[in-house]
Amino acid sequence: MHDSVLIARSDLSNLVLVAPAAFKGSFGPRAVADAIAAGVRRAAPEATVLLCPVADGGDGLLDAVLPPGSLRERVQASGPLGTPVAAELGWVDPETAILESSTACGLALLTPEQRDPLRTTTRGVGELLWEAVDRGARTVVVGMGGSATVDGGTGAARGFGWTFQDGGGAPLAEGGGALADLASCASGWGLEAQVVALADVTTPLVGPEGAAPVFGPQKGATVESVARLAAGLDRLAALMARQGHPELATLPGGGAAGGLGAGLVFFAGARIVPGAAWVLDRVGFDAALAKADLVITGEGALDRTSRVGKATGEVIRRAEAARKRVAVVAGRVEDGAGLAAYGGDGATLDAAAIAASGPRATRSGCPRLPLRLNFRVLMPENLMDKLVSLAKRRGFVFQSSEIYGGLGSVWDYGPLGVELKKNIKERWWRSMVHEREDIEGLDAAILMHPKVWEASGHVAGFTDPLVDCKHCKNRFRADDPRIKGTPGQPDAQCPVCGTKGTLTAPRQFNLMFKTFMGPVEEDAAVIFMRPETAQGIYVNYLNVLQSSRQKIPFGIAQIGKAFRNEITPGNFIFRTREFEQMEMQFFVKPGSEGEWFEFWRAERLKWLQGLGIRPEKMRWHQHGKDELAHYAEDAYDIEYEFPFGWHEFEGIHNRTDFDLKNHQQHSGKKLEYLDAATNERFIPYVVETSAGADRTTLVVLCDAYREEEVQGEQRVVLKLAPALAPLKAAVFPLVNKDGMPELSRKIYDELRRHFNVFYDDGGSIGRRYRRQDEAGTPFGITIDGQSTQDQTVTVRDRDTLQQVRVGAAKLVSYLKDKLAG
Ligand code: ATP
User: Fold this and answer.
1) How far is the CA of 568 from the centre of ligand 1 (A)?
2) Closest CA to ligand 1's atom 16
3) How many angstroms separate the alpha carbon of residue 340 from the centre of ligand 1?
4) Sorting pLDDT into bands at 50, 70 and 90, what band is 519?
5) Atom of ligand 1 nearest to the CA of 635
6) How far is the CA of 512 from the centre of ligand 1 (A)?
7) From ligand 1's centre to the CA of 74, what distance in Å?
8) Ligand 1: centre distance to CA 257 (Å)
9) Nearest ligand 1 atom, CA 696
10) Residue range 315-323: average pLDDT?
């Protein structure tokens, strides 16, 4: 992880207290505190830094309160769906165990689709409690945080014999089983240990027709959702009272529905204490605070309403009471897209904006500080995460429909991304169509006659065999390398829940998206979104042949969208449900396909190397007999070493006469070729080159991404081949006065007529360079004081960092030379 914070001003206080909570989903409190502290130390080596990670009882509790080196034992427990998860028991001392219920039953363990509290269980917390006692604990501290407390609510309710119905009146599946059992021993368990439950929020309620829609993020709760929640609580409290359990309506922490407070912990006779206060006391916060001149605090997912989370709120409250200066850092991991942070107004800022601005989010009422902090992005180690984050930050790729929570595995290309992908496609088109006499271009429609897909074999054969786990309900491709044993047999082991013998035998699943043509949704009107562009070429083969007067061998090339309802999409734009293909079908005389196959293999590799992709990162993979697609006789993939391993991004396939023969048969239209020289008739064989525009874009991005140290500073740079770079140059007036902006504008306007260039006059010149390094812009043109005197500018090379002075009048030809290729 990088240092997350750099203190720009050297006049820092001598004693800095760093007290952050977990950055949810990414780093624990200690890791975040370490990262911030490292940044502070670097900027102000003389300052003494006190580390004081905090938590409110939820995520990161163990991390915050257990000193490094403490005993932490891994214990298997039932997760939120009743399937095993690895939880932890930490030991404060030999008689005091501590556990986070969020790792045993937390909603964070579930995917958004699974996150239905009516189906989840808190059984794991009970198991951990007993485990701790078995191992000798006299006191067990249970961190309940917020979200972990909600999921058991209905379990208790079920214990009273209630059933839950969905909106349509159908009963909901069983969940929360442990609480149902517990409800029968309302006098308590007689546990031989004292249980201390840490909880900070009133548990949002899940109840009949009630508050379920609002249970979610307490920290993000809106005024309306809180009102709905309160109404739900009232209703459930009334229900509880009618059922003869008024005590369950008023328990703290667990809420009336019977979350942990009313369930496990209640039955264990727990003492419920405010989590953040307990943690701060335990880590000696007040003593550290007394010494501190400045407190830096913060956490992930700050509450948009109150501006601060619970632990952070407590830190600020105490710091303010002690009249200390406070700076608040906030971040959130967005779908692997890296951290965003909240500004003081509650808006989400991106990392660049944070870097460009001063003090960060503060609770309303908490004074903004005169202190200037420069924030460096807290980056996950994983290259893929970094890339996704950079892609979003710089406007390459955004998640589709992000404001609605995103659409699974569908991505949108932003201002820079669309240029990059377009440059790749244009290069492909130039080399495959314009530079070759024997290839013609085509743009066939996405929607095609349904019979096309019968002829092509897609209706019958375009399926990925899948297996289901009967236990945890997850679904996998049958060839998932994580599966041990043979699916369908007792030896097969589920890669997620680890259960043996619960995987079904492989079943077929059609990957084509279906829709209806015309106003009536009936079987006869079913139409498919094409899963590959190739068929558009085959059905136009005769048209192109006749209209272009080509002779065999010749090819048809096309770039276009394809759609596959992939079962295991993912890895950013690697495997998506909507993507673009760049395909070329080369029609040859039967018997010559072997030769052409080799020809196109060599050509394609050469083309990729021309994109600047490092040769050592690419390799060939020949399909084994069991891997070949239904149409192929021979196939080679070109694989790239992605951060997640070697994978295909382009394929060269010998498709024989499979497709044309089938189309001839299904359409009744003769698709034979007449060789005028020999008077021979034959159905041509096809050698196909099939590349994904999106996957190739990902390869180009992965290959270009570098982190470097330049003059003692870290920089992230995309070393894109200049021909592919979205922006070719950026124009910077050194300062916004003394005639520099005017001259810069003039130069910018002139360059814009030839290249895609960018004008940037915001922030220090170093920061402007860094922004363009991340965008992969090969040249930075700075207009300085000398420029207005002698009409020369400096041109900085992104890769070598060398700067040369060039006459403004010669810039266009200078850049043209440099960009050629
Ligand atoms: P995979 O097994 O990785 O899904 P595939 O073997 O089915 O790919 P082909 O049918 O040969 O792929 O498609 C040719 C190219 O189209 C691939 O090399 C890839 O670049 C691209 N491609 C295929 N499926 C997808 C997808 N779901 N998302 C993005 N690109 C894809």
Assistant:
1) 12
2) 692
3) 32
4) confident
5) 11
6) 13
7) 40
8) 48
9) 20
10) 82
What atom of ligand 1 comes closest to residue 647's alpha carbon?
3
**576 with 566: CB under 8 angstroms?**
yes
Whole-number Cα distances in Å, 527 to 282, 452, 453, 522: 64, 10, 10, 10
| Residue 410 Cα to ligand 1 middle (Å) | 15
Q: At residue 442, what is the residue type?
A: L
Give the range among 23-32, 512-521, 703-712 with minimum mean pLDDT.
23-32
Burial code of 484-515, b = ≥16 C-beta within 10 A, e = fewer? eeebeeeebbbbbbebeebbeebeeebbbbee
The rounded Å distance from CA 440 to ligand 1 centre is: 23
**Atom 2, ligand 1: residue with shortest CA distance:** 648
Residue 705: predicted pLDDT: 94
Report the nearest atom of ligand 1 relative to the CA of 573: 29
Q: What CA–CA distances, in Å, run from 643 to 382, 386, 409?
A: 8, 11, 18
* Mutation choice for ligand 1 from 533, 558, 690, CB with most ligand atoms inside 8 A: 690
Report the C-alpha gap between 298 and 329 in whole angstroms.
4
Exposure string (b/e) for 632-654, b if CB count within 10 Å is 16 or more? bebbbbbbbbbeeeebbbbbbbb
CA–centroid distance, 531 to ligand 1, in Å, is 10
- Tell me the residue ranges of DSSP E strands in 535-633: 554-563, 578-588, 618-622
Q: What is the DSSP letter of 570?
A: B
Nearest protein Cα to ligand 1, atom 7: 629
- Helical residues (DSSP H) of 374-499, grouped into ranges: 383-393, 415-429, 450-455, 458-461
Angle 465-471-476 (CA atoms, 0-180°, nearest 5)?
25
What is the tens place of the pLDDT at every residue in 328-355?
Answer: 665 544 333 333 333 333 333 333 333 3
Among 458, 510, 579, 630, which is best to mutate for testing ligand 1, by the most ligand atoms less than 8 A from CB? 579
Range from 83-87, 672-676, 741-745 carrying the lowest mean pLDDT? 83-87
Residue 300 near residue 25, CB atoms below 8 Å: yes
239 — phi, psi (to 5°)? -65, -45
Q: Which residue CA neighbors atom 21 of ligand 1 most closely?
A: 692
pLDDT band at 209 (very low <50, low <70, confident <90, very high): very low
DSSP 695-712: HHHHHHHHHHEEEEEETT
Q: Which residue has the higher pLDDT, 652 or 311?
A: 652
User: How many C-beta neighbours within 10 Å does residue 165 have?
Assistant: 13
pLDDT of 160 above 90: no
C-alpha to C-alpha distance for 776 and 719, rounded to whole angstroms: 6
Residue nearest to atom 3 of ligand 1 (CA): 648
- 238 C-alpha to ligand 1 centroid (Å): 56
Q: At what angle do helices 383-393 and 693-704 cross, to 10 degrees?
A: 100
Reading the block at residue 431, the tokens are: 């080399």
Pocket of ligand 1 (CB under 6 A): 564, 566, 575-576, 579, 581, 648-651, 690-692, 694-695
The residue to mutate among 695, 700, 701, 702, having the most atoms of ligand 1 within 8 angstroms of its beta carbon, is 695
Arithmetic mean of pLDDT, 231-241: 57
The pLDDT tens digits for 41-96 are 766 677 788 889 998 877 789 989 988 777 888 888 877 676 778 788 998 888 89
Q: What are phi and psi of 417, to 5 degrees?
A: -65, -40
Residue 122: pLDDT band by 50, 70, 90 thresholds? low
Q: Is the pLDDT of residue 375 over 70?
A: no
Long-range contacts from 627-630, C-beta under 8 angstroms, 24+ separation: 629/653, 630/457, 630/461, 630/658
Q: For residue 553, is the peptide bond before it cis, meaning its omega torsion is within 30 degrees of 0?
A: yes
